[in-house]
Amino acid sequence: MILVTGGAGFIGANFVLDWLRSCDEPVLTLDALTYAGNRENLASLKDDPRHIFVQGDICDRELIDRLLVEHPPRAIVHFAAESHVDRSIHGPGEFIRTNVNGTFTLLEAARAYWTGLSGAAREGFRFHHVSTDEVYGSLGPNDPAFTETKTYEPNSPYSASKAASDHLVRAWHHTYGLPVTTSNCSNNYGPYHFPEKLIPLIIANALAGKPLPVYGDGMQVRDWLYVTDHCSAIRAILDKGVPGEVYNVGGWNEKPNIEIVNTLCALLDELKPDPAGSYSRLITFVTDRPGHDRRYAIDARKIERELGWRPAETFETGIRKTVEWYLANQDWVANVLSGAYREWVETNYAQR
Known about the structure:
The protein is an alpha/beta fold. It has a domain at 2-192 and 224-251 and 294-314: Rossmann fold, CATH 3.40.50. The protein is built from 13 helices and twelve strands. Helix 2 (61-70) packs parallel to helix 4 (92-115), helix 4 runs parallel beside helix 6 and helix 9 crosses helix 11 (315-328). The termini are far apart.
């Protein structure tokens, strides 16, 4: 069995679903079901005996200890995190609590559990920590892409909290010998993405005839990674990754935000045309957010060289699959767009 924290969130849920499509090894999913955690993401597993869901907080040491005894895992895959830069600007405290204190609690519980193992179980145990490229800071237009040895230079409360968690994971390996691996990924996209992030926000707003907000001049550059490619990278790391190592996971798809928005408008024009005209008419440039990093880019050659992983999707194939999924799952979108979400959008965008 493996334990997946944050397994009802966007990337975590895709990982759980992908894992159980790929093998029969059971999964214990732990998720606090905050605003971005959604049981509906795992609805297809409701009657699957290979899946156990527990609602709980990674800061709850007593709960973690109990779960490790009742459902002893061979690996922990740690997705659980607050992960939205804008939310971290408005309320950084929750990011410190979950990303720093929660990771510390989980590491201590994992260390106690691993220390009690013996033989092959102890040798084979892994703690995999899922992190972000944002810990590396911002790149200039001609700077080389982030490698695993790039100096950490986080620029937002979110990225600072993730950088802190990365350092804790590293220290627990070097100090206590806990067999950890870490992956730093670029921007994910795909099914089940909470609509505060760029791609699902643009799709949802376009279909509702609302403005499509683009920060600043829209020329912030990101590397885009289709979420199931990220899942396959983590499987490769669990299978062949070396304890103590960091692996950058990227899609080799650097795109400015405005190009992403225009691509989405063109796909929606094709797949669900609006009688009022092209969705691009809704593009609205808004005041940039504080400290907005200009460019991220991942150098993913290490994971290809050492573990044989490369993304299967191009941006063109992945973004089409994403738009088609959202069009086919409008009930999911409607249920996610709760009053709490609408209040958040008002808080973040009303004054821009």
